[in-house]
C-alpha cells in the first residue's frame, strides 16, 4: 500500500512539474489515461438517473419582468433553493457579448504560447492570479481531475490590470463587474425568500468577496475512466456559473445524477455550503460533478461569493431570526477561514465538509 501511495505522489509531482497541465497530455496525443487520473471502477455509474427521474430538470427562472413580478420570482427562487440548491436564470441582464468574450478569453489563455502560460503557474494561494491543474493535487486522496484552471481574486481588493494576463484581461474585469451586480440582486432575492429584509444577507458580508475560477476541460481519450471534476459542494455563499454548450455538469438530486443542460445565454446559480449553514438547512448546497468527454473542450467560469480566502474574523452561524424551538440550530458557529482549511485539506473527495460543523 505504501509503495502505491508513494508512486501516486511521484506521478502527481512529475505531472505538476511539467506546468503543462492536462492540456499538455492531450497535446502529446496520449491514448491512455495516466493512473493518477483513474477513478475507482463503477464510480461513474453508481447513481444513474432512474426512469422516473429522467424528466427531472433544474428549475429555470426568467428575470425578464422582475420589476413587475418580483414576488413571483422570489417564490420560484425559494422553491429552487429549498428543493434543488441549483437553478438557471435567463434574461438576467448580463449581455451575451460579455459572456461570450469571457469564454473566449479563457480559451485564449489556455491555448496561448506555452511559455507565456507557464509564467503564471503557481501553487501560492496568496497570488491574485494563479494557473495550475487541480488545487488539491497533493492533498486529495481522490483521483486527479481531467482539467486545468486559473483562479483570480477579484473582490474586495481587485488585481491591477497588469496582474491579469493580457489575453483575458478586459474580459475578466468586465465579467467581474457584471457578476457583482447580478450577485447584488440574487442576494436580495434570497434574503426575501427567507422572509428577511432584502439587505439581510448583504449586511452579513455574504457578497464582500468574489473569487473566480475558470476551468478548461480538454477532450479525454477514455472518459469512462476519469472525471472532469469530482463530486463536491461549494465552499461559498453563492456561486454563479457560466458554462458553454458542451454539457457535462450534473447535480445529485434525490440520489440521482441529473444533467444541468446548457441553455444559450443562461447562467447557473447554486447555493454554497455557507448559505446552507447560515440558513440552518433551509437552502441546500447540492453535490455536483463534471463528466469528461471524448470529443470537445469544455469551458466554464465559476464566480464564488466568499471571503474565505481573506483574513476575516467574522463568526458565522445559523441566522437567529430563522431559529425557534421547532427549528433549533443544526450547526455550531465557525469562521470561514476555519471551514476552508478543513475543506482544502480534504480536497474534492465527494464528502461534504458541512457534517464536521453539526452540533
Estimate what percentage of residues fall within beta strands: 15-25%
- How many domains, as an integer? 1
Note the run of SSEs as H and E.
HHEHEHHEEHHEEEEEEHEEEEH
Distance linking N and C termini: 36 Å
Give your account of this protein's structure:
The protein has 359 residues and is α+β, with helices and mostly antiparallel strands. The protein is 30% helix and 19% strand. The protein contains 9 helices and 14 strands. It starts with a helix and ends in a 13-residue tail after the last helix. Residues 1-5 have low confidence and may be disordered.
Summarize the structure.
By secondary structure, the chain is α+β, with helices and mostly antiparallel strands.
In terms of topology, how is this protein built?
Blueprint: H1 2-18, H2 21-27, E1 60-62, H3 66-83, E2 86-90, H4 96-111, H5 114-118, E3 129-132, E4 148-155, H6 169-193, H7 200-203, E5 210-217, E6 229-232, E7 238-243, E8 249-253, E9 256-259, E10 267-271, H8 273-278, E11 288-290, E12 298-305, E13 315-316, E14 334-335, H9 336-346
Parallel strand pairs: 1-2
Antiparallel strand pairs: 2-10, 3-4, 4-5, 5-12, 6-11, 7-10, 7-12, 8-9, 8-11, 13-14
Helix pairs in contact: 3-6, 4-6
